[in-house]
Structures are given as C-alpha cells and as structure tokens.
Amino acid sequence: MSKPTVLILCTGNSCRSHLAEGILRKAAGDLIDVQSAGSKPAGYVHPLAIKAMAEIGIDISGHHSKHMNEFLSQPVHTVITVCGNADQACPVFPSQVERHHWPFDDPAHATGSEAEQLAVFRRVRDEIRTKFEAFAADWRRSPPPRRPA
Fold first, then answer.
1. Structural domain span for residue 40
2. From CA 96, how far away is CA 6, in angstroms rounded?
3. How many domains would you assign to the chain?
4. Does 129 fall in a domain?
5. Three-state DSSP state, 72
6. What CATH number is associated with residue 19?
7. pLDDT digit string (tens) for 37-49?
C-alpha cells in the first residue's frame, strides 16, 4: 500500500510551502508522503526559511523548488494551498480527495534588517506550525484509507 500524498502549493515554492512541508513531514512521520511545489517556482529555497526551520530542529536545506505540474501524473490525496495565487492557479490533481486553502503572509516580502526579516519568518513558521501540526494530529486520529500501490 502506498502512503497518501499531501501536496502543499504556493506560488514560488521558496518559503511558505517549504516551511509547511518540513513541519508536516515531521509531525506526520511515516503516515503520509509530504511534497511541496509552486505554480511559478522561484528556483531556490529562501535562506531565511532554512534558518528559521533549523531553529526548531527541522532541516530543509536539501529541499528544492519544484513546479506543481510535476505532480499531475501522480495520485495526490490532499492539496493544501498556502497563498492566494496558488489557490487560483491550482489544477485538480488525479485522484484528489481533499483540498484546503490556508493562506499565510509571504515572509519573502519582509523588509528591514536580517534580524527583522527573520522575525517575520519565525512568525509565519509558527503560524504554519500550529495549523499543520493540528492537521497531522487529525490525520493520526482518523486516517483516510490507503490506496493500493
């Protein structure tokens, strides 16, 4: 049996979706396959996203920016958009069962010193952490049926 895939989408796939991917992957353990992608991938993961996640013991330094079309030929159980643009651009994926739209501020638009920008990344990370840890807890209590591999 294959694990259900949860795909987290954002426009650039450089900040919010990677924060959510790392947090959900840690919170859900081996229950689900967590991926992230973007409608217009930036081509990198923001260094302050990597730094903010390292502070809570999650390493996303090996992540890379991907286009959501890479997942169109794969079974995706749940799609979660974390920004408005991705929600509008989001196609329906094969075998998609659920879709959620949980918008968060884009920390990449933070201004000021690096410390001030990092504070915005931490705030958004913590907001994402609250939402996605609750999602993982709900999934643990009532997991959807697994599809045959």
1. 5-137
2. 10
3. 1
4. yes
5. coil
6. 3.40.50.2300
7. 998 999 999 999 9
